[in-house]
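Anyone up for a design puzzle?
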């Protein structure tokens, strides 16, 4: 038996609770992992609360991230005792995920835990941090360099935003952070933000074009915020869009794209090819100041993930939540 958060949906409704689960109930897979840490991402919070259509099979163990040690493997790349990491691939959505003491997975989804990180540190980064790295890599691929000007990060005090601020600042970019939590301005400055702006400036419907300011942007928020970010991005600037914290809509015009040559790059972490994942984790190992992770992430026990899910959706969780599944 092992402990897991289990989401069930039936005539009695949608509910998530701590359960003791029999190993025999684990789904099919060629690698069994003894999970040590998982995390609480925005998507996990949607799954646990049922506030978004994340879970597509019931019962489901949520948790799109996990770190742990291989217990059994029929996959040629993994041996018992190997330290591994997993992000995405539909885990926690259609296949049982990481918010449990054990997981059985397709070995092709795993990557070796980078030597630079403990399992706790890898989960303090998690899908949120790996997505932030994908955004930074996309800016670089489009030719954005520190000398080009300011980079805007929205939803900056959240998981993706916090890691994006820390990474960009370490790489020498001038980072402007947007937050709805002015009391976290000092936290964002510690991570490396040169300036902190109030989210209210971006949240209302804006004009098709505004004063040009950003050489690049990382947007986790969507909706009017993303539209306003595009409208104020400089000629040939680059905006990466990875989130929908304010909404799935994009009430924008084509003006920034056809008059200023702005590039909007979509970022997906879930089905991201293996080579790009390995590159992102390798860059995280060299470009993220590990000292910042202590500030960004805090660790909780498995049961605490349940009430924290609603708080995260309410925008009350700063940085990242690491879940020690044995605590
Ligand atoms: P968090 O909840 O940690 O951060 C989201 C942040 O967005 C909040 O902290 C808050 O920042 C801001 N925010 C929340 N609500 C609103 C609102 N109504 N209007 C404007 N800003 C708001 O989530 P994550 O960082 O884990 O994820 C952020 C987004 O990125 C989510 O939408 C998530 O689904 C998406 N995502 C996408 C991935 C992909 O593969 N494309 C991978 C990972 C995440 P503040 O208080 O500073 O304003």
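Challenge accepted. My sequence:
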């Amino acid at each position: 038996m092992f402990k897991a958060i289990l989401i069930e949906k039936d005539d009695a409704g949608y509910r998530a609770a701590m359960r003791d689960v029999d190993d025999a109930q684990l789904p099919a897979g060629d690698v069994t992992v003894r999970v040590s840490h998982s995390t609480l991402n925005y998507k996990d919070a949607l799954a646990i609360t049922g506030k978004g259509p994340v879970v597509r099979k019931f019962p489901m163990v949520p948790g799109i991230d996990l770190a742990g040690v291989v217990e059994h493997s029929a996959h040629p790349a993994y041996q018992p005792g190997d330290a591994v990491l997993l992000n995405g691939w539909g885990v926690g959505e259609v296949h049982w995920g990481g918010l449990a003491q054990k997981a059985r997975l397709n070995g092709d989804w795993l990557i070796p835990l980078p030597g630079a990180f403990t399992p706790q540190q890898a989960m303090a980064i998690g899908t949120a941090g790996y997505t932030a790295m994908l955004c930074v890599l996309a800016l670089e691929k489009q030719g954005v360099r520190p000398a080009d000007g300011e980079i805007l990060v929205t939803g900056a005090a959240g998981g993706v935003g916090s890691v994006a601020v820390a990474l960009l600042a370490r790489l020498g970019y001038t980072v402007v952070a947007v937050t709805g939590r002015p009391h976290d301005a000092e936290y964002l400055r510690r991570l490396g933000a040169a300036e902190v702006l109030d989210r209210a400036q971006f949240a209302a419907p804006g004009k098709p074009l505004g004063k040009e300011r950003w050489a690049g942007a990382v947007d986790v928020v969507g909706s009017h915020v993303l539209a306003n970010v595009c409208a104020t991005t400089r000629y040939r600037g680059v905006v990466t869009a990875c989130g929908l914290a304010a909404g799935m809509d994009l009430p924008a015009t084509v003006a920034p794209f056809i008059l200023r040559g702005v590039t909007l790059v979509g970022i997906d972490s879930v089905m991201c090819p293996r080579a790009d994942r390995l590159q992102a984790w390798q860059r995280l190992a060299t470009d993220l100041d590990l000292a910042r992770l202590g500030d960004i992430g805090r660790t909780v026990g498995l049961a605490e993930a349940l009430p924290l899910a609603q708080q995260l959706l309410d925008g009350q969780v700063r940085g990242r939540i690491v879940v020690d599944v044995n605590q």
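A detail worth pointing out: Residues 2-113+291-324 form a domain with the Quinone Oxidoreductase; Chain A, domain 1 fold (CATH 3.90.180.10).
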